[in-house]
Amino acid sequence: MLHLLVYASGLALLGPWPGIWLIWGIGAALIWASVVDFQRFEIPDLATITLTGLALYWIATDASVLWPEHVIGALFWAAGFEVIRRIFIWRAGFDGLGFGDVKLMIPLALLCGPISAAQMVFLAAVAALGVMAVVVVVRKLPITGVALPFGPFLCFATWITWISML
Hints:
Blueprint: H1 2-14, H2 20-40, H3 45-61, H4 67-92, H5 99-139, H6 151-165
Helix pairs in contact: 1-2, 1-6, 2-3, 2-6, 3-5, 4-5, 5-6
């Protein structure tokens, strides 16, 4: 319910817009990816494919979007997340950032562009650290005993970043 309220409030701020169906579709796909990731610690491939298709449609049809910049940003951010994932596995011996998050960065960076994607990742990281701190304090667990999916934070931060750009 919290997801729906937050995403709906972003839509309410936009008012009538000819492409509102696209915004609803992207919002629904972000919620879907977030909920499944919270439940199973995995992002459905179909959600990533759907988001990628919607993001490509948006950058192809909106004349104000510099699509080459968004495509290069998507490749850069996905590659960057894969490097971070592999370094973490090498250093820690286990997977701390899933490959689903790497794949998810493609449509999210397509929506945000390379520069705004940096802001989106920062916002997602700060939100995730805040939630993790609350979980550690409330449950009285060591920080190493807490695992949170990162996808929902990425989706939420993308929604805020992308809606603020429209």
